[in-house]
Write a structure and sequence with these properties.
With 566 residues, the protein is of the alpha/beta class. The chain has 17 helices and 18 strands. The strands form 6 sheets. The chain has a 6-stranded parallel β-sheet, covered by helices on one side. The longest helix has 17 residues.
């Protein structure tokens, strides 16, 4: 009956009908496009054709046994409780569609989001139209093989935060929900599809379109991404790589365009994250280490020579420009300096960062993640790679909580740091405590600092997009001077606004951390890499103590997800 009503509504709205046998054959009908989406093991316009299962499963990262398994919780938003999860792909109940079965048509043929479950749009912009692209570009792919499954998490938060709109005419932005890092030759095919199936790409010239790549070199990694650079010249890339021009020493290409693209923080996760002294339940030790780094020094994956005063410091000439050579330079000039700890490994890594005033935040083979990690432990980041912008720079005031050292100044870095007055150091430590909230995706994976997630990386991304639409043409470094709300938000000064029924669960896969968790630990394990439906902020401790929400309760949890910053 639901399917028949949906078909009738689609016809009234003048939409294309799906092939008659689509749903009966196990497919999902997208009535907006008249497209039948099939599970991996079926093909054809109406899912009536068999495919070579072994090669198809292998292509998308599965073995034959797991390729079509029913995995109830391992899909985007757990299919909103309105479908069956088949190894990451949602076989939606008839009448519902979309990658997570979020969508349906009302009696007038207008798409609705989580109809009947209490969904409401966000009170603030941006409004984001999400393309429902064919599953071979996203949900057919085995997300458990992704080391950075961020595209899906941003996607589900766009929904649960209320920023999604199905009305393209009111949309501020258009999100292409995939990670271009994993598409290879399909990147061009996907852009062709988007331009053909909807009018918005061609109408805007690709402007206001959000494209994501989590590769080490952002949108510049690999021949296939380079081939679409000109075609995506007006689009906004979300990447972790902020190199603005070709590096003079290394082959790295510079693709980041400040004010158009956004450098987002990689969701760097480490054991014992909750032991940060920025967690109100953890004692703050004295910061008695002047400068700290623990990690890889040489590009040959070998330890450096024990005597740091000798050059070269690496045992072999393999990959000498790893980190643009800066890790080696820092080791050479400062490893023997009193008060400086520069080592390749440490069993007390977490404690050491918590005790340090300044921490090296270098690049690696491409983007770095140390700036995110060290800030999380209250250590002031010291980035050293020329022409690289850091996460949310220049939108956030990085000079207020970090010390960027030019590559040429590495030999005198100790003098630069020593010249910072104690009062300024205290201000920077306060500022880095705020910045750490912006640099962690707490609404996705759980809180670390005992906060409610109102300043997290997702909220920061949304705020940057809002300011851009409301203040077009303003230099990103000047947002605080033209937008009062951004000024307070970026400085973590909205705490006077009461949380709206939010008690954000705490990040943690390790039960031994329960004693230091500022709130109940999130139930992360059972969801796999798709994570908690809607994000950790949607999990309500005490509401579902057994962790066994079922059916449309799952969709309702996403539809009514708390919104602490709205």
């Amino acid at each position: 009956a639901v399917a028949a009503a949906a078909a009738a509504a689609a016809a009234r709205a003048g939409r294309h009908a799906c092939p008659d046998a689509c749903v009966a054959n196990g497919g999902v009908c997208n009535p907006e496009l008249g497209r039948c989406d099939c599970p991996r093991h079926l093909g054809g316009d109406d899912c009536s054709e068999s495919v070579d299962l072994e090669s198809t499963c292998k292509r998308y990262g599965f073995d034959v046994k797991s390729c079509t398994n029913t995995t109830p919780l391992r899909c985007l938003n757990a299919c909103s409780g309105r479908g069956t999860c088949l190894a990451g792909w949602c076989q939606c109940t008839a009448g519902f569609y979309g990658a997570d079965c979020t969508l349906s048509l009302d009696e007038h043929g207008t798409p609705e989001i989580l109809a009947g479950l209490g969904y409401r749009p966000s009170e603030r912009r941006p409004k984001i139209f999400v393309y429902e692209i064919p599953p071979r570009f996203n949900t057919w792919r085995n997300i458990e093989k992704f080391d950075r499954p961020l595209y899906a998490h941003i996607w589900k938060r766009i929904i649960s935060s209320g920023h999604r709109t199905t009305d393209a005419l009111e949309a501020d932005y258009f999100y292409v929900p995939t990670d271009f890092r994993y598409l290879f030759s399909d990147a061009t095919v996907l852009l062709d599809y988007v331009a053909h199936a909807w009018p918005h790409w061609n109408a805007t010239g690709g402007a206001r379109h959000l494209l994501l790549s989590t590769s080490d070199l952002g949108g510049c990694e690999g021949a296939e991404l380079m081939r679409i650079r000109e075609r995506t010249a007006n689009a906004t890339w979300l990447t972790a790589w902020g190199l603005t021009r070709k590096h003079p020493k290394v082959w790295w290409k510079g693709c980041h365009r400040p004010g158009l693209d956004i450098v987002i923080p990689i969701p760097a996760q480490t054991p014992n994250m909750l032991r940060t002294p920025l967690n109100p339940k953890v004692p703050q030790p004295p910061r008695d280490i002047d400068f700290y780094f623990s990690g890889k020094i040489c590009g040959d994956n070998k330890d450096p020579r024990p005597n740091a005063s000798e050059w070269p410091v690496c045992q072999t000439p393999t990959n000498p420009l790893y980190s643009a050579g800066m890790r080696q330079q820092v080791y050479h000039h400062h490893a023997l300096r009193p008060g400086y700890q520069i080592v390749t490994r440490s069993e007390t890594y977490i404690q050491d960062m918590a005790r340090s005033k300044f921490c090296l935040a270098p690049t690696g083979g491409g983007h770095g993640k140390r700036q995110v990690l060290v800030a999380r432990f209250g250590c002031i980041p010291v980035p050293i790679t020329d022409f690289v912008m850091q996460p949310f720079e220049p939108e956030l005031d990085w000079p207020s909580f970090s010390v960027a050292v030019a590559e040429a100044d590495v030999p005198r870095m100790h003098k630069i740091l020593a010249a910072i007055p104690d009062k300024q150091l205290v201000r920077m430590q306060s500022a880095v405590a705020c910045a750490s909230k912006h640099l962690w995706w707490s609404s996705l994976w759980g809180g670390v600092f005992g906060d409610d997630g109102r300043y997290d990386a997702f909220a920061t991304t949304m705020e940057i997009l809002r300011v851009r639409r409301e203040h077009p043409g303003v230099n990103a470094s000047q947002y605080a001077s033209v937008d009062a709300h951004w000024a307070r938000f970026s400085a973590c000064q909205l705490d006077d606004e009461e949380p709206r029924g939010v008690r954000l669960c705490s990040y943690g896969y390790d039960e031994s951390l329960r004693e230091v968790a500022p709130t109940e630990l999130c139930g992360l394990r059972r969801w796999g890499k798709y994570g908690i439906p809607g994000g950790a902020v949607c999990e309500r401790p005490g509401v579902d103590p057994s962790g066994e929400l079922q059916g449309e309760e799952l969709g309702a949890a996403v539809a009514t997800c708390p919104r602490p910053w709205r």
